[in-house]
Amino acid sequence: MELLHQKLTDAIIKTFYEVYNELGYGFLEKVYQNSMYLELKNKGYQVEAQKMIKVYYKGAEVGEYYADLIVENLIILELKAADSIVKDFENQILNYLRSTDCEVGLLLNFGKRPEFKRKIFENNRKK
């Protein structure tokens, strides 16, 4: 069974490991974000950094957040530089997916050891 946007997510995860292997552990998230942005752009992907996304409650705008990276208008990347992935990070990316037309999110942690989580929130379940 093919996962949603599998080829693209595979390419992003491969890039994540390339960046991690080059930089290692211990930098601020911004360094990893800039590196992922450059590497994905160099591979020919459309990438947006710090894209503002509005959050609505019952039709009224109640806030906004900035996605670390959005690739091909399909996949939200949330980058962390923490000891490990915690439930709060997973909930954060699910909320981001809920607020957009993106259905796939990748949580990429540049921690002591690299780790990622792939999250899905299908558009037909939103609203």
TrEMBL record:
Superkingdom classification of source: Bacteria
Name the InterPro entries on file.
GxxExxY
Name-wise, this protein is GxxExxY protein
Q: Which organism is it from?
A: Flavobacterium degerlachei
